[in-house]
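Ticket #4471: structure export looks truncated?
Reporter: QA, pipeline team
Priority: medium

Steps to reproduce: submit the single chain below to the structure queue and open the exported record.
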Amino acid sequence: MRKFWLENSNGKLWNLTTDELDYKKGTFFANPDGLGIKTKISSYEVENTFFIESVTTQSQTISGDLYFVDYDHYQRFVAFIGNVNTDTPMKLYYSTTGKSFDNMLNKEWYKLVLITELKKGEIDIKTSALKVPVKFECLSRWKQDKEIVLELSRTGDPLVYPYVYPYFYGGSNNLAVTIDNTGNLATSCRVKVEGITESPLFRILKDGEVKDQAMYHITIGANSYLLVDSSADRQEATLYSQVGDELVHEDVYYTGEKNYTFSNFLTIPPGISTFIVSALNSNFGKVTLSYSIQKELI
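Actual output as written to the record:
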């Protein structure tokens, strides 16, 4: 049996596929529709032959019926979702395994959604439950969050990176990890570097080739950390430092490598790739890589 959960902007969860309608256990999401994809094809015809110009995925709406014990149960759900006139999305989790995934949502797929319609119906005579039609506007593909922490997992001696010319960088400290982006889409990522680090260099390699790279000419202090977020709604490279009781921040994007081969905001390609971090000093700190696998269909 398919299972659904909803996570609000405060990180609280609401079970949408409870086995028994109950104030504490949640509600039941019936007749779900819109879990697949819809594409738009642009084409033109020449002498009875059609040529495709583009194929684009369109935004989807997931709809269905929510069943509540009574009106009080419905009001509790309204309080859970909060202000509907917001641009802060919730997460709609979806599992086809039929197993309960309580406290294991980090392993499940979700879409970012906003509720665009919530009709307050009447108590159904047959089921004695309150039936409420609902519509979720999807703001993302299906996503699954991943986080990798690298800490002194050295690859050995200084690396020679495959490139259009021999490229040598850094001392003995090179951290590397395999990234399994099993989705069918490239994805943005978030890199956090903590601890004393000089001029961190990030590279993503696939099939022996450098696919993307970023480098920032800064020194990260003992009480500081660098955050580089390549997601479209963030696009930040910021140095955060603890000064007394205050956490101050500085935009350091301008310190990024000016060479045109550096994007300074990393994109992870689909499939298996390698993420490598280097620095001028030989004992830099902890590196945390966060990203989301993305798929059109699950």
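Status: closed, not a bug. The export was complete when the record was re-opened. Leaving a note from the reviewer for reference: DSSP finds one helix and 25 strands in the chain.
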